[in-house]
Design a protein that fits this description.
By secondary structure, the chain is α+β, with helices and mostly antiparallel strands. The chain has 5 helices and 9 strands; from the N terminus they run αβααβββαβαββββ.
């Protein structure tokens, strides 16, 4: 799984600020739903998924990591500029028995290395890839946020290299049989996922609409919310600005607490420093 993370302070501050952010001019009059705090993802878990891989054996894990280390990331990033031709479409044949998880890592740590990694050779180092996270959209709702369980921010990059770069990396793993071909790649940073909401939902009083939506907490069915108000309110909100993408990594499925200090993040099993 390749994942994108950012500086925890940056995202924590912006998440706190959402309570007083100015609504967008085009926000509707629909009441903002009460989003369970436990469904808001920690800043340390923010990532952009490039694909889900299936690596059932240790040798396949090692092979996927080896492939990642062989990539010339500087060349791939240079080829992702708007003036470069797009990569060819993926093959029609499906990959054999695939399904793990691919993600792209970013971090604002100024002490991070700016090396290219072991697969880049003497390729010229392109300008760093820097992104922002903007707006709020609902996932898997056919453009209707009135009944959703996932809200995400859209990554943007002024050089227009992010999408083609991620597509090229994904294509390499598809060609190697680690990711099944699928139509399109929707890059997104999950802000809210109600699957993580604790099962503390109480039955509302008769005749009172509390805006909580319906469903149950984690382990007892999917909780859905009416997100029309919050999507409109944060349509133009900027969660993160000009953050350098620093790593591409393969991570274990599912974020979890690490280190005993309560910090939740994805565990990387192999990764590369971005140019």
């Amino acid at each position: 799984m390749e994942s994108l993370t950012n500086d925890p302070t940056t995202t924590t501050n912006t998440a706190t600020a959402t309570a007083t952010a100015t609504p967008a001019a085009n926000a509707t009059a629909v009441p903002t739903p009460l989003i369970p705090p436990s469904s808001i993802r920690p800043a340390t878990t923010l990532h952009l998924t490039l694909g889900v891989l299936s690596l059932p054996t240790p040798s396949q894990v090692l092979s996927a990591i080896s492939l990642l280390h062989s990539l010339d990331l500087a060349k791939l990033l240079s080829e992702s500029s708007p003036s470069s031709p797009p990569p060819p479409p993926p093959p029609a044949a499906a990959a054999t028995n695939t399904n793990t998880n691919t993600n792209t890592n970013t971090n604002t740590n100024t002490n991070a290395s700016n090396t290219n990694g072991d697969g880049d050779g003497d390729a010229a180092v392109p300008p760093p890839l820097r992104i922002s996270l903007k707006g709020l959209s609902a996932m898997h709702t056919d453009l209707d946020p009135s009944k959703t369980s996932v809200l995400y921010a859209t990554p943007t990059d002024p050089t227009s290299r992010l999408q083609p770069f991620c597509a090229r990396v994904r294509r390499i793993f598809v060609d190697a049989g680690y990711i099944l071909p699928s139509p399109g790649l929707v890059l997104h940073a999950t802000i809210v996922n109600t699957i993580y909401a604790r099962a503390r939902r109480r039955r509302p009083k008769r005749g009172c609409g509390d805006g909580r939506g319906n469903g149950r907490g984690k382990g007892k069915g999917k909780m859905t919310i009416d997100a029309r108000g919050v999507v409109g309110r944060y349509a133009g909100y900027e969660w993160m600005r000009d953050v350098r993408v620093e790593r591409v990594g393969i991570c274990e499925m599912g974020a979890r607490e690490v280190g005993g200090g309560g910090e939740v993040r994805y565990v990387e099993v192999g990764g590369r420093e971005m140019p």
